[in-house]
Amino acid sequence: MTATAATGLACEVSYRDVIDGLKATALALSTTRDATRHVELLAIDDKLVITATVPDQAEIRVRIPAAGIEPGVLLVAHAQLQALLTAATKGASKRDLDTATVRIVDTAGDDDTLNVELSGYQLPIAVTRDVSSYPQAPAMPDPTVVVDRAAFTAMFTRVQPAAATDSCVPLLTGVQLHAEPNRVVLIATDRYRISRGHIATDTTNAHHNGVLPGALTGKLLKLLDGDQLHIGTAEHNGRTWTTIATDTITAHLVAPTTGDYPRVAQLFDINPDSTLTIDRTTLAAAATRTAAITKALASGSVGARIDVTADTLTLTPGTDKGTAKAPAIPITRDGNPEPWASAANPTYLAAALTAFTTDNIEIHLGQPHKPFKLHDPDGTF
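Structure (tokenized):
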């Protein structure tokens, strides 16, 4: 995307657009501790393109409508430009900010200065005109999978909390993406819990596998707009890059580390001995209370006991001493009616239940003291 360096770069853009562009590109720069983090400003055709690239980590490119274009390209310190724009509008009303415009003009002199004109101010900022050393993401094919943006964002938000936050297992801090004909599947695990969700797509002939950096992608999705999201993956130097793109933002994101994501999806396919149907709100409230009580009564990591009969489920807080008691919750149970007992981390259970949106959920039981599955009735999560 980089053009030949040129003097005379100029353009006029919406204040809101350029602030949003800097906010999005900051996500890529957050993957490095380099103190001299720069973005590339490219004025071309009828737009200003802001690009942040961190080698082998991420590239985020934002396209902003612009007027008064004088083509050119240069580098500017991201934090300084953002701070300058914010300072020049300090105290301005929302209405003023919604209509404010920013004019960017390269002085084309020997002092390597860019003038930023905003709110009646003309403010100089240092730039670098030689962009030849600025890193570039590898050439990526056009993404071939098209999904509903809002649906993908909602499902990612539900799945991602099960990803690891421990840097000792960097691959598990990501969310596995598997695109297959007619659906996209997302999986996350931290070794103790696994979440899986899928959304429908009209794409019928694409297969992609990648691992999205979990926290970064979650923040990025909140900044995207438009109806559709375009997704694709590609291999480069042993690393998998995943592309997520809308009409205005294109992000190339690298898997958190090399290696194959563990084959955990098969754990969802075990046939249950019995299936419970339970009111989600009631169980979520019980899990939240149980987590709080367990924290008050136990000094270490103590699980909550789960007891299931033919028509009730009881979630009992863990304690250091003695045995607590808890109220039973009514259920409907199909399959094996025999009593079933196990245990679970109550904090994880409470967190999992917040990801469901239906009135009732299903709980699929296998052997006691083995993993059990929370399942929404439509089968998507």
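Residues 273 and 366 are 5 Å apart (CA to CA). The two ends are 39 Å apart (CA to CA).
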